[in-house]
Amino acid sequence: MNNFTIQLVIKLLSLPSILIALTIHECAHGYAAYKLGDPTAKITGRLSINPLRHLDPIGFLCMLIFGFGWAKPVPINTRYFKNPKRDMALSSLAGPVSNLLLAFAGTFVYRVVYAVINTTGADFYFSPGYFLLVFLQMFCTLNIGLGIFNMLPIPPLDGSRVFLTLLPQKLYFGIMKYENYIMIAMFILIFAGSRFGLVGGTLGWLIDKVFSGYNAVFDLIPFLR
């Protein structure tokens, strides 16, 4: 199998990982808001695990090509919340947390599959088992990356909704007026930073540390060592 074929297979394997990560991320936002009293996501059909309900074509392509992207934001109406700032922060936090939990569960499956293959002693290089492990590792690292990236305190990322709740209300809404401009500036900085390896290098280091931490937890289980 030549290098081009391997890279093509890896790209194809990344497609379901991206769809699952973005779908669960947005669904988690909507579900958290629903549990806090806002039925908007439910009414608009966004409490669904159907990727087509959440897919943004441009955001999906950016995720596939550049490693960062977005889905269609779940509509949230803060007027339904008892405590708008707090409940908006919790709804926002639900997305990144769901990705980190998905990665944790994925790491467990990865370790189980690896342990089973290891006990057979078979040569699995480029076998179905090998590509299953590649998919699982990609699934884990992609979800960790999406979770970490979205926790940055920069509008319109989820972390900004959490961070800005600490500010006075007047200052909070003053900043949010410029959300679209901040978003454009953020993407320009990300693109410029990725050209010099600043963004990818830092994010990659954080992803590796979190993934290593997850693996360290499962090292405690004798069967998975």
What does this structure look like?
With 225 residues, the chain is mainly alpha-helical. The radius of gyration is 19 Å and the shape is globular. The longest helix has 37 residues.
Topology summary:
Elements lengths: L2 H33 L4 H4 L13 H10 L17 H37 L7 H23 L7 H6 L5 H8 L2 H17 L2 H21 L7
Helix pairs in contact: 1-4, 1-5, 4-5, 4-9, 5-9, 8-9
Distance between the termini: 30 Å
What general form does the structure show? Answer: globular
Count up the helices: 9
Helix and strand run: HHHHHHHHH
Instruction: Outline the low-pLDDT stretches.
Output: none
Structural class: mainly alpha
Radius of gyration: 19 Å
Short descriptors:
mainly alpha, single chain, 225 residues
Q: What's the gist of this structure?
A:
The protein is mainly α and 225 residues long. 71% of the residues lie in helices and 0% in strands. 30% of the residues are buried.
